[in-house]
Design brief:
By secondary structure, this protein is an all-alpha fold. 76% of the residues lie in helices and 0% in strands.
Length: 332
């Protein structure tokens, strides 16, 4: 329990640090969202005077006359109240309303791809480590490393041209427009059909995990208890999965949590290529229109996802590694 509380305290501090970055970083960018809104209003024939400017600033909660540090504390208070502001881009929707649909699709896409990628990398890493030096080992490790180093946007474009624009897979959307399924299984199938290509692009981006699992597994196979098990005639499957893989998974679980940020950034780009209605499209519109509340909302959501994933990884390591539990009990 002490270990969990210690890690929880660390993530609380990290969360407040992320809040500070989330607030000040957009304000360091050139441009002013109120000015951009007023410019669009003027171009459409609206009247822009001092009263209009004051009304727009009050409407969006963007007071240029209040000191930034005071606005920062107001921002923190509003976050915990559930008031994340009003989106300039999707006015009159709030930030939570504007991002609600997108975050569901992004979490679904990234979560599915992350789980499948973890299973694939783990199993292939165990296999090639057991058969190290073979042709299979060389093919999978070298091939996986090459594919993982290709930028995610290039991978997405290649898959899109090869499979989407040949009408094998859909070119966009999360579900077929005007699709009325007869049952829930038809809906699930249609969602999986649309998510296949962007999910595959995310999985390919993370194929470098094969090398990490392979290296950890090879280190475990050299341990005395593994050698003794082989000498005693313990079945290969039990040695691979029962002995070696469990200990080899510990560093992989840690690296998996750290990869979430990288994969999340890549998935936002992939969503753009496949016209997938996740946070990627919303983020691009927010940046182009200097929509501070919307940008802050998306960054805050991604921060919460990453910190939560890392906290779950810490708990998983504690469960898998008895030494961590003993350290938590002893307070070390």
């Amino acid at each position: 329990m002490k270990y969990i509380l210690k890690r929880l305290w660390f993530y609380i501090i990290a969360f407040f640090g992320a809040l500070a970055v989330n607030f000040f970083l957009p304000r360091m960018m050139p441009g002013n969202p109120v000015q951009m809104f007023l410019s669009n209003l003027y171009q459409s024939g609206g009247v822009v005077d001092n009263n209009t400017i004051a009304a727009v600033e009050k409407l969006f909660g963007y007071d240029t006359h209040t000191p930034v540090i005071i606005s920062f504390f107001h921002y923190i208070a509003s976050i915990f109240k559930g008031d994340w502001g009003i989106s300039f881009t999707f006015y009159p929707q709030t930030v939570l309303e504007a991002t609600g649909r997108g975050v569901r699709w992004t979490v679904f896409l990234l979560g599915s791809a992350l789980i499948l990628g973890f299973i694939i990398n783990t199993l292939l890493g165990i296999l090639v480590a057991w058969k190290r030096g073979s042709r299979l080992d060389t093919t999978l490790t070298v091939g996986g490393q090459i594919m993982a180093n290709i930028p995610s946007v290039v991978t997405a474009i290649i898959l899109s041209i090869a499979l989407a624009y040949t009408d094998i897979f859909p070119r966009g959307y999360a579900v077929t427009p005007l699709f009325y399924p007869d049952n829930v299984f038809q809906y699930i199938g249609d969602v999986a059909y649309h998510a296949f290509l962007p999910g595959l692009a995310v999985i390919i981006t993370g194929l470098g995990g094969i090398m990490g699992m392979r290296a950890n597994m090879i280190n475990q196979l050299g341990e005395d208890y593994i050698v003794m098990g082989i000498a005693k005639g313990v079945p290969d499957r039990k040695i691979m999965f029962g002995y070696g893989a469990r200990n080899a998974l510990l560093p992989v679980v840690t690296s998996l949590a750290m990869q979430i940020g990288f994969l999340l950034g890549g998935s936002l780009i992939i969503e753009q290529v496949f016209n997938y209605p996740g946070l990627g499209q919303i983020m691009v519109m927010a940046i182009s229109r200097r929509d501070y509340p919307l940008m802050q909302g998306i960054l805050l959501m991604t921060t919460i996802v990453m910190l939560t994933a890392n906290f779950i990884a810490d708990i998983s390591i504690m469960i898998l590694d008895p030494r961590t539990r003993r350290q938590g009990v002893n307070g070390n």
